[in-house]
Amino acid sequence: MVSLQYSLLPHRSVIGIAGPDRVEFLQGLISNDTTKVGPGQAIWAALLTPQGRFLNDMFVVEDGSGTFLMETERDRAPALARKLKMYTLRSKVTVEDRSAAMEVAVVFGPDAGRILPVAGATAFVDPRLPELGVRVLAPVGQTAALLGLTEAPVTDYEAMRLRLGVPDGSRDLPVEKALLLESGFDELHGVDWKKGCYMGQELTARTKYRGLIKRRLFPVRIEGPLPASGAPVHRDGKEVGEIRSGQGDRALAMLQIDAANGALTADGATLFPERPAWMQIPDPKQV
């Protein structure tokens, strides 16, 4: 059996949300259903602007004490914690930025779920795709001892994420610009269509039911130098998208759907878009 390995994700950190109203409090704010959260059972979700544009992505899981742990981008966690505190109003909820106290890791490899449970940490199978492994939220400096696995460079995990075409925070989802359904949140289980209202819900629902998606975030294979993030992508001299995050010979690119076949160019490189198995693109004749 192939052994598992783990990578620390230094660009991710944790916010704690406690109190008897924590479920209802988050339910009115984020795109997924917080009633589905439990110990070892996580959701992936986003906080949106009132106009339905991306602000933050997060995993939400419950630890053993009944507190929600929100894993999100480290650099933007303090601002997110302040925003959540502003929204608490009279809710019986406390919000605590745990960036200094907790670290985030991912265990990956065949059947990574067999590592569960992880004593001394909060761990869960990535709810987007099982191939993405198990996320681990642990006290700072303790991940290696708790897991007892070989540490791999984060570039190994990044290569897998890019190959699968899965976005990672604001480097793939421009703040106050990105739409969830252009970025895979529907197929990757980041939106619950049966829950009640949440901030930005109206535009998200309208986009889905009117079939308004003309662009999607695609994984691309690169021949040549890695284009810079934000570099325009062209086809036959016409701009058809832009590069987002990338590494080596792989990147994600936001592309017009009708241009995501055949060779494209960006920054002197040739790009070959790929359609991951999880991605669903409706036939335009049926929309």
Helix and strand sequence: EEHEEEHEEEEHEHHEEEEEE
Q: What's the gyration radius in Å?
A: 19 Å
Determine the mean pLDDT: 95
Instruction: Report the sheet-strand fraction.
Output: 25-35%
Overall 3D form: globular
Number of strands: 16
Terminal CA distance: 45 Å
Share of residues in helices: 10-25%
The chain-level structural class is alpha+beta
Number of helices: 5
> What is the makeup of the main sheet?
6 strands, antiparallel
Strand order of the largest sheet: 12-13-14-11-16-15
Low-confidence stretches: none
Characterization of the model:
By secondary structure, this protein is of the alpha+beta class. Helix content is 15%, strand content 32%. The chain has five helices and 16 strands. The protein has helices at residues 22-27, 77-88, 143-147, 154-164, 201-209; strands spanning 5-8, 12-18, 43-48, 54-62, 68-73, 94-97, 102-108, 122-125, 134-139, 150-151, 215-223, 232-235, 238-247, 250-256, 264-266, 269-273. The protein has a six-stranded antiparallel β-sheet with strand order 12-13-14-11-16-15, covered by helices on one side. A hairpin with a 5-residue loop joins strand 3 (43-48) and strand 4 (54-62). The mean pLDDT is 95.
List the helices and strands and how they pair.
Blueprint: E1 5-8, E2 12-18, H1 22-27, E3 43-48, E4 54-62, E5 68-73, H2 77-88, E6 94-97, E7 102-108, E8 122-125, E9 134-139, H3 143-147, E10 150-151, H4 154-164, H5 201-209, E11 215-223, E12 232-235, E13 238-247, E14 250-256, E15 264-266, E16 269-273
Parallel strand pairs: 1-10
Antiparallel strand pairs: 1-7, 2-5, 2-6, 3-4, 4-5, 7-9, 8-9, 11-14, 11-16, 12-13, 13-14, 15-16
